[in-house]
Amino acid sequence: MVVIRLVVWVLFGVIFGLLPLIVVGFRELMVANQLDLREVLIGGELFVVSAVLSAGALGELMAAVYRGERSLTVIFSGFGCFAMFAANTMGYMLVGTSLPGMVVAVSTWLFPVTLVASGLSIGTAAGR
User: Fold this and answer.
1) Structural domain count of the chain
2) pTM (2 d.p.)
3) Residue-wise burial string across 64-91, b where 16 or more C-beta atoms lie within 10 A, e elsewhere
4) What confidence tens digit (pLDDT) does each residue in 23-78 have?
5) What is the chain's alpha carbon radius of gyration, rounded to the nearest angstrom?
6) What distance in Å separates the CA atoms of residue 124 and residue 128, rounded to the nearest whole number?
7) Which conformational region is residue 33 in: left (phi greater than 0), alpha (psi within -120 to 50 degrees), or beta?
8) What span, in angstroms and rounded, lies between the C-alpha atoms of 81 and 53?
9) Distance spanning both ends of the chain, measured CA to CA
10) How far is the C-alpha of 86 from the C-alpha of 84, rounded, in Å?
11) Structural domain harbouring 89
């Protein structure tokens, strides 16, 4: 059950969540004949994708709590998701006043951390 939930989350949540950035990347390839990751990520959209992923995973986790689960895993998973949601939301709010290189660096650093925190929450919720 856990593996199935994680696969569904990756395919439908993560991949479809990244679809706007993937389309921008394809546009860069077709127009400029090269993929400049900085140009794809400079607008801070990866912050939004990450915030949505962590919020969705937090919702899954809260549903598991509602079903009666109370454990340290649930508490730490929930904290990780909420922290990533907050960090990505703040990151996106600061895009307009930040150096473009910092937007790219911080968003690409937060994204994998968000994936881990969200994946743990999805797995925890599915295993309950």
Assistant:
1) 1
2) 0.81
3) bbeeeeeeebbeebbebbbebbebbbeb
4) 888 888 888 888 888 888 999 999 999 999 999 998 888 887 776 766 778 888 88
5) 16
6) 7
7) left
8) 9
9) 10
10) 5
11) 2-126
